[in-house]
């Protein structure tokens, strides 16, 4: 068991009510609100050597909007906490980037916090609308469901690899995929507005395999996945399966909802099975290479 899992187990056992934990965002049914929070930390999630403040502002908001979309909700409002060695130019460019993404997705910035510090740290709380929608839960996958995916995978990890090697061409499609990930709001909205049965949906921000593992743990199911069916534009199998920050969607749908998958042009990559084993066909010498934040 990795340290993050140990920490999460401690939190679950320590707080008096853990019923809201486990999904991409918490659903406050009585208020019709989806709530999530995500953070980006300098030298962990990004380096200022290849991210401009404007690009950071855009990426930070996109990461959080993705969580609301993964839950099937509509993003509405965000609060931004920004800390580090800040100056006027950084603040102006960061908020320009954040505001451009918010305008695109009809999201309002409603407040936040500014704090000094040694390294830049960005934390965002996002609120979304969950009224009159069939919302996702990682606990909803069931044996016999089809597993679908939206978006190419491995592109963002390939882009990061290029940036770390010193590549500076930000028109390169892999670098663009890393700096400004593509989200799929139309897919998310259509599913939450039209699917009649319970379903599990999550983004692939930490890699396809980690997304499968989370659903497996929360729903107590296994998977039979064909690696060859995963949409990809690169050759590196490790980056495709374990590389993060593509922000595609992984969706487990009842077979009765197959017509919706066809309408949305989702790619079927496998099925949900009994047990808790995650089988990856056409992937030789398998080893779980999921990124761990707390290795040391």
Features of the shown structure:
296 residues; alpha+beta; 60s Ribosomal Protein L30, Chain: A; Phosphoribosyl-aminoimidazole Synthetase, Chain A, domain 2; 2 domains; 6-stranded mixed sheet; 5-stranded mixed sheet; 11 strands; 24% strand
What is the helix fraction of residues, given as a range?
25-40%
The CATH architecture assignment of the largest domain turns out to be Alpha-Beta Complex
CATH class of the largest domain: Alpha Beta
Q: What general outline do the C-alpha atoms trace? A: globular
Major sheet summary line: 6 strands, mixed
Strand content: 15-25%
Based on CA atoms alone, the radius of gyration comes out at 19 Å
Report on the architecture of this protein.
It is built from nine helices and eleven strands. It has helices at 3-14, 53-71, 88-105, 155-164, 173-179, 185-194, 208-219, 237-242, 258-263; strands at 26-28, 33-41, 74-84, 108-116, 121-129, 146-150, 200-203, 222-226, 249-253, 267-273, 278-281. The protein has two domains: 14-129, 60s Ribosomal Protein L30, Chain: A, CATH 3.30.1330; 146-281, Phosphoribosyl-aminoimidazole Synthetase, Chain A, domain 2. α2 (53-71) runs parallel beside α3 and α4 packs across α5. Helix content is 34%, strand content 24%. The strands form two sheets. A six-stranded mixed sheet has the order 7-9-6-10-8-11, with helices on both faces. A five-stranded mixed sheet has the order 1-2-5-3-4, covered by helices on one side. The chain has 296 residues and is α+β, with helices and mostly antiparallel strands.
């Amino acid at each position: 068991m990795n340290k993050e899992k140990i920490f999460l187990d401690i939190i679950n056992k320590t707080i008096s009510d853990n019923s809201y934990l486990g999904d991409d965002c918490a659903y406050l049914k009585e208020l019709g609100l989806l709530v999530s929070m995500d953070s980006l930390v300098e030298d962990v999630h990004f380096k200022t050597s290849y991210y401009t403040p404007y690009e950071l502002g855009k990426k930070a908001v996109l990461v959080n909007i993705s969580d609301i979309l993964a839950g099937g909700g509509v993003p509405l409002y965000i609060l931004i906490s920004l800390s580090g060695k800040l100056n006027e130019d950084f603040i102006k460019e960061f908020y320009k980037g954040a505001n451009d993404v918010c305008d695109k997705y009809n999201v309002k910035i409603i407040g936040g916090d500014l704090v000094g510090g040694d390294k830049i740290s960005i934390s965002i709380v996002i609120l979304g609308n969950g009224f009159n929608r069939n919302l996702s839960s990682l606990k909803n996958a069931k044996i016999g469901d089809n597993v679908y995916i939206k978006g190419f995978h491995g592109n963002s990890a390939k882009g990061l690899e290029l940036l770390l090697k010193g590549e500076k061409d930000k028109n390169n499609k892999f670098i663009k995929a890393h700096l400004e990930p593509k989200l799929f709001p139309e897919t998310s909205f259509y599913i939450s507005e039209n699917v009649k049965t319970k379903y599990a949906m999550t983004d692939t921000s930490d890699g396809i395999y980690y997304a499968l593992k989370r659903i497996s743990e929360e729903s107590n199911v296994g998977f039979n996945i064909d690696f060859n069916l995963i949409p990809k534009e690169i050759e590196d199998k490790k980056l495709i399966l374990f590389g993060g920050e593509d922000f595609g969607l992984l969706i487990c749908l009842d077979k009765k909802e197959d017509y919706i998958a066809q309408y949305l042009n989702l790619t079927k990559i496998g099925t949900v099975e009994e047990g808790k084993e995650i089988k990856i066909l056409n992937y030789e010498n398998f080893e779980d290479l999921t990124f761990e934040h707390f290795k040391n």
